[in-house]
Amino acid sequence: MAGQWLPPGELTLSGRPVLRPGEVECFLLSAVDIEPDIETHPSLTTYKAGILTLTTHRLIWISSATANDAVFVPLSLVTHIFTPKKSLKAMFASPRIRFELSLSDSGRVDPDKPRHGARSVVVTLVMRGKSDNHELFYTKLWEAWRAHAWENSDPGTSGSEAASSVAIRVPVVGVAGILRKEQEMWESTDKSLQDAFQDLNALMSKAKEMVMLAEKMRQKLLAGPNSHTSTGGDEEMGSKEEMQDWLLSVGIISPVTKESAGALYHQQLSRQLADFVKIPLERAGGMINLIDIYCLFNRARGTELISPDDLLQACTLWEKLDVPVMMRKFDSGVMVVQSKSHRDEEVFGRIKSLVLKPEALRNGISPSDAAMTLGIAPAMAKEHLLAAESRGLLCRDISPDGFRFFVNLFPEITLDDIYLVKDDGIYATWVAAVTS
What we know:
By secondary structure, this protein is of the alpha+beta class. It has helices spanning 88-91, 134-147, 174-223, 233-250, 258-261, 265-276, 278-283, 290-301, 308-316, 344-355, 358-363, 367-374, 378-390, 425-435, and strands at residues 25-36, 47-55, 58-63, 70-74, 78-81, 96-103, 119-127, 287-289, 325-329, 335-339, 394-399, 402-407. Keywords: Coiled coil, Cytoplasm, Endosome, Protein transport, Transport. Belongs to the VPS36 family.
């Protein structure tokens, strides 16, 4: 694309930005334009009407018109942020934030290099949305830029103090002695507090490293092959499931909140939820109960809990968003989340092979039997059995012991001679199983 001067950003399948290790979302705004100074740099293009995400490391712009189109501005290359001008004209115009951005010799933004200093451009963020959080966004931008979180500078103050000199103990005599003893006590307390905070900082840094490691392993699991052809495939599958359980307990690094997303809260929550349910859906065979998703998602969000209404609204928005998952409601009213690649025909085929077994032909199958075969919860297995019944594959028998499902033999019966016993087909298999 001509005039493409900002580096492309990476997005998830649901259109959320892929964050770097240690990067956290701070604020979101809709309908934001990125306008370079055309007078000094006429070759640079303007990015129109996109969602702007402020993180601790970058400004990420995602196009609202084109799918999978995103660019970003590294905060490390921002050399100056201008104070917004307050005037009568500014009150009736779209809010604007201006900052100076360092460019490479080719006139582009190179995130892999430090501030170049040779060339720069003044960039204007034009906020055309109806949000009233523009001043708060400027404050968050200033704080993120001043924090320099991208440097990850852990100076590693090992507490190498000056050589511990031998202190001469002076006897406590008079008021001076009492003051000296009080001073020594305060110094000892201060040193204990410093040591405690050093241990706490070390623990926090280690925890941060563990979260970063978990995120890398999660990405590797998502990108890994689904088929295991080696001799140790079962062991690999078991270790993968164990790793997925552990990663689900780690949680979401940067959960979407109402404070950071504002008017985009439910839309961004819907996209983040679509990314989150990928691993649980793989473990559940492509379909999982909405209640289970609510529990897993809230556990991963930690203290940033969401309400059932927020979850339902986020799932409803999947119809408008291009995401690989969807919400489905069975005739019984049970709501589930399933991947769009999930096909009921595959489940029906496994159920049909189950009901054609000799024991099932005689006694039928229960939802618990189907749950063991499909590897899902009995409640979900019952919904699949009822769906198979509506397709004409099964017949249901209701007794005091509960539901029992049998293979549907009515299509095998000839209406002209209902007593005719065929020598082949499912009917003959059933007769052989019952009479044996």
